[in-house]
Design a protein that fits this description.
The protein is an alpha/beta fold. 31% of the residues lie in helices and 21% in strands. The chain contains 20 helices and 30 strands. The structure holds 5'-O-[(S)-butoxy(hydroxy)phosphoryl]adenosine. The site of 5'-O-[(S)-butoxy(hydroxy)phosphoryl]adenosine (WT7) has 22 residues, from helix 12, strand 20, strand 24 and strand 25.
Length: 672
């Protein structure tokens, strides 16, 4: 069976019901439609028809039109070793030249590429020419250290012009980067360095967010001191604050010393279209994160097409995607997509609530942002904050520059959608509710802002050429109105190519035999509207949680808990939360007797901090409950579906006849 074995489908039925009953339809505004690149549903349907008629020809045409190839491709899709699909395989390109050099000769050289706003609201910017020069110097610096095509480089940097330059510098010399989000712990960083076999870490002295400084360099030191990172030769440190850091003279180098005196030009290294541009680790249903491997050609193509299709990007737009470069959204919609399209964009170091919850709206007003892309969790927390402090409400700001809004990372509930539409978009901006995943490389199901009528809470229809469908466990198509597994039946250019070091896990996780072995299994449930065929995503079907749009595996958190010497056993479940989507509830059995009262509170606190340190503060359980045991079947399997009910403080109505130890349920009902 595919997916979670013990999930009760009725669990999130109330949400599904509210989506199903959503009747409101919002047509894209007429003036938006008139000026959009894809204007009207007929234009959308014509593109779908073109893809249908000549699938490979469709993508080949777009790849020729959008990408500057140093060697044109003659092969289109190679499915001979499916599901290890290859696109445009004999073509060669350099992704960094597609993001930078092309703009030196097309009139964009003096156009602003990046406008950086620091946590304390200091603003600086670079033009395309300046960014090109910075990246070339950085690339020459890396070359001088012996970093070569095919080497892996870990980037553990804050949101900054330097962080984006680091990614592009790697791309320029054909090195494969792996960005690790600055919130991840030393242990998570160490695991990723080892799995990727990285030769260098690019980091900063500190990261500044919300008025607080996080010592990135010290965390890198701690990761390397844990051992096993023998492939690392150098640590490059960008000086963000100038505060003290430890320096190991044989290993560490300041970024400014590395680039000082380097030439502002660097011959790009052409790579094959399938060359891994990057590896990005994400959570799966086992304890070990998966290194999602992406290509160069197909990935770049998708980043450009979706900027044009879903965001209708225009030369005069001021674009802002609030994601961090540590996530896939920051790869595709901060670094590669916008730059390849020659956009002007905001790069923000801080958080939405500092110095107050009006920060986003203040920035939209000051920078005259026209396209704004953020996560539902941010919107929901700003709704709450604006109720508590009306000065931070969007109505207090001039947001008239906005013409398009985007949402990403989790389902957006209709209430949050309506608030965003009315209060931020002034009822004149379409909302692109973009469904996608680390593995898909870019948007796959999303409304086209100048075409698709929008329904709050639905990501609407697949992009042209995306063969999305809802199927049952055996891979049979389900009729509209019936919930099932979300799949994509044909390969597309920006799809995941492999799991780094683990091709077996790649085929098992994404192309299960039950579905025929070549259909992509997204890992989400979905249901299509009976009349419109619109998709609504109903949540993960595996043991993956979505906390504030961040993806975490329950198994990962469980392994972190049992790594603590006092813990015997742990089971982690998600609990619905109004702001963060889900929150983490952990059920723990200690090696000693079950703690109660203040003792339990103290241990729960200790364990919460332990998990934050082992993985990341994002993974810190909201709640920990202790039992003498966990509810198990006679064969010893933990009955997580019961734990999900207990976490919600609901009465257990399910059949518990297969439960070995029903008495345990009473203990676990007691929250700390
Ligand atoms: C999971 C992927 C997409 C880039 C950022 C997160 C959920 C994402 C939506 C949406 C409903 C969504 C899914 C998906 N998700 N966008 N618009 N509507 N659910 O990437 O960390 O790989 O997480 O996020 O569950 O599988 P990710």
């Amino acid at each position: 069976m595919v997916g979670k074995q013990d999930t009760e489908p009725e669990e999130n039925m109330s949400d599904i019901e509210s989506f199903k009953q959503e009747q409101r339809v919002f047509d894209p505004p007429a003036d938006f439609v008139a000026n959009a690149a894809i204007s009207g549903m007929d234009a959308y349907r014509a593109m779908c028809a073109e893809a249908e008629e000549d699938y490979e020809g469709f993508w080949a045409r777009l790849a020729q039109q959008n990408i500057q190839w140093t060697k044109p491709f003659t092969k289109r899709l190679d499915a001979s070793n499916a599901p290890f699909y290859k696109w445009f395989e004999d073509g060669e390109l350099n992704v960094a030249t597609n993001c930078l050099d092309r703009h030196l000769t097309n009139g964009n050289a003096d156009k602003t590429a990046l406008i950086f706003e620091s946590d304390d609201a200091k603003v600086s910017s670079v033009t395309y020419r300046e960014l090109y020069e910075r990246v070339c110097k950085f690339a020459n610096g890396l070359k001088s250290l012996g970093v070569q095509k095919g080497d892996r480089v870990v980037i553990y940097m804050p949101m900054s012009i330097e962080g984006i330059s680091a990614m592009l510098a790697c791309a320029r010399i054909g090195a494969t980067h792996s960005v690790v989000f600055g919130g991840f712990s030393a242990k998570s960083l160490q695991e990723r360095i080892i799995d990727a076999g990285a030769v260098a870490v690019l980091t900063a002295d500190y990261q500044v967010r919300g008025g607080r400084q996080l010592p990135l360099k010290a965390i890198v030191d701690e990761a390397l001191d844990m051992g096993g990172c023998d492939t690392i030769r150098k640590v490059i440190v960008y000086q963000r604050t100038g505060a003290d850091v430890n320096f190991n003279k044989d290993r560490d180098l300041w970024l400014h010393d590395l680039v000082d005196g380097q030439k502002a030009e660097c011959e790009p290294v052409p790579v094959g279209a399938e060359h891994p541009l990057f590896i990005l680790y994400t959570s799966g249903s086992t304890g070990k994160p998966k290194g999602v491997q992406h290509s160069s050609g197909g990935y770049l193509l998708w980043s450009m097409l979706t900027m044009k299709w879903s965001f209708d990007i225009k030369p005069e737009d001021i674009y802002w995607c609030t994601a961090d470069i540590g996530w896939i959204t920051g790869h595709t919609y901060v670094t590669y997509g916008p730059l390849a399209c020659g956009a002007t964009q905001i790069v923000f170091e801080g958080v939405p609530t500092y110095p107050n919850a009006g920060r986003f709206w203040d920035m939209v007003q000051r920078h005259k942002i026209s396209i704004f892309y953020t996560a539902p969790t941010a919107i929901r927390s700003l709704i709450k904050a604006s109720e508590a402090d009306p000065k931070t409400h969007p109505r207090e700001y001039d947001l008239s520059s906005l013409r398009l809004l985007g949402s990403v990372g989790e389902p957006i509930n209709p209430e949050a959608w309506m608030w965003y539409y009315k209060n931020v978009g002034g009822e004149r901006c379409p909302i692109a509710d973009t469904f996608w995943q680390t593995e898909t490389g870019g948007h796959v199901i999303t409304p086209l802002p100048g075409a698709t009528p929008m329904v709050p809470g639905s990501c609407t229809l697949p992009l042209p050429g995306i063969a999305a469908a809802v199927v049952d466990d055996a891979g049979h198509d389900l009729p509209n109105g019936k919930g099932g597994l979300l799949v994509i039946k044909k390969p597309w250019p920006s799809m995941i190519r492999n799991i780094w070091n683990d091709p077996e896990r790649f085929t098992k996780s994404y192309f299960p035999q039950e579905l025929g072995g070549t259909t992509y299994l997204a890992g989400d449930g979905a249901i299509r509207n009976e009349e419109t065929g619109y998709f609504t995503i109903t949540g993960r079907i595996d043991d993956v949680l979505n906390i504030s749009g961040h993806r975490l595996g329950t198994a990962e958190i469980e392994s972190a808990l049992v790594a603590n010497p006092i813990v015997a056993e742990a089971a982690v479940v998600g609990k619905p939360d109004d702001t963060t989507g889900e929150s983490i509830c952990a059920f723990v059995v200690l090696k000693r007797t079950r703690p109660e009262g203040d003792d339990a509170k103290a241990i729960a606190k200790e364990l919460r901090e332990w998990v934050a340190k082992e993985i990341s503060p994002i993974a810190r359980p909201r709640e920990i409950r202790f039992g003498d045991n966990l509810p198990k079947t006679r064969s010893g399997k933990i009955m997580r579906r019961l734990l999900r009910v207990i976490a919600k403080d609901e009465e257990i109505t399910q059949d518990i006849s297969t439960l070995e130890n029903p008495a345990i349920l009473e203990q676990l009902k007691q929250a700390q």
